[in-house]
From TrEMBL:
Pfam families: Arm_2 (PF04826). The lineage of its organism: Eukaryota, Metazoa, Chordata, Craniata, Vertebrata. One of its GO terms (cellular component) is mitochondrial outer membrane. Gene3D superfamilies: Leucine-rich Repeat Variant. Keywords: Membrane, Mitochondrion, Mitochondrion outer membrane, Transmembrane, Transmembrane helix. It is a single-pass membrane protein. Residues 2-214 form the Armadillo repeat-containing domain. It is found in: Mitochondrion outer membrane. This is Armadillo repeat-containing domain-containing protein.
Length: 245
């Protein structure tokens, strides 16, 4: 009934309320299966392009809950390009960006669909520079997920960093501990990657690629890590020590 109403409604506020209801229902496993069986996932995902921002937000939230179900992910993965586009075109720090990042976080928990995010690294890094703490944390959750997969590392280290100096400046005692802990976890995953001398030389020739910004010995990143070695947060201290070691 809800899916039928959603398809026939001409009221933006009604569409948002129906999507909210479906999203709440999708918090339960039995409903995640039912919505898929009723072919509800493509119906809901169709509202990613709804003219009303609130409807798009509720669509993302519903897909996020549906994404907790592995069979559902097989259908939701086809909308990744549209979700990434929403992040790029939506206002900075908006609920749309947050909803999209939460969906990508759930979709990237396992390595099965991480390859779909290969071209998103530059976008995720740029969010760290321009967004508030909530979005920074969410973007870093995706980056940590991706960097936990060795098969993704070649794409990650080659990614272009749009504002390298700003990313480096996040390694600072004044950065929110919630952001800094996840950023260091991401860096620790990167440090575990061991390129050959030939690959490292090739990456050094790529202007502003992630390797040059965060991993190359000539980067300012190392000296900034040393500065936060005395951070009052014990977990941050331990993460820095592991990276430097």
């Amino acid at each position: 009934m809800l899916l039928s109403c959603l398809q026939t409604s001409n009221s933006p506020s009604d569409r948002s309320r129906i999507l909210l209801t479906l999203g709440n229902a999708a918090a339960f496993t039995v409903n995640q299966d039912l919505i898929r069986e009723f072919e509800g996932i493509p119906i809901i995902a169709g509202f990613l392009s709804d003219p009303e921002a609130e409807a798009r937000v509720q669509t993302l939230n519903a897909l996020n809950n549906l994404c907790m179900n592995l069979p559902n992910q097989e259908q939701i993965k086809v909308y990744v390009p549209q979700v990434l586009e929403l992040i790029e075109v939506s206002p900075v720090n908006s609920d749309l960006q947050l909803g999209a990042l939460r969906l990508l976080t759930n979709l990237s928990v396992t390595d099965k669909h991480q390859h779909l995010l290969k071209k998103s690294i530059t976008l995720l890094l740029s969010i760290l520079v321009v967004s508030n703490e909530t979005l920074q944390v969410q973007a870093l959750k995706v980056l940590v997920n991706l960097s936990s997969n060795p098969d993704m590392m070649d794409d990650i280290v080659q990614a272009q960093v749009r504002a390298p100096a700003s990313v480096i400046l996040l390694i600072d005692a004044r950065t929110s501990p919630a952001v800094l802990r996840r950023l260091l976890l991401f860096v620790g995953n990167l440090k575990a990657w061991r390129p050959s001398a030939q690959v490292a030389d090739e990456l050094r020739r790529k202007q502003d690629c992630l390797f040059r910004v965060m991993l190359d010995e000539s980067s300012q990143f190392h000296s900034r890590l040393v500065q936060v070695l005395s951070h009052p947060d014990g977990e941050i201290q331990a993460q820095v020590a592991r990276i430097l070691a």
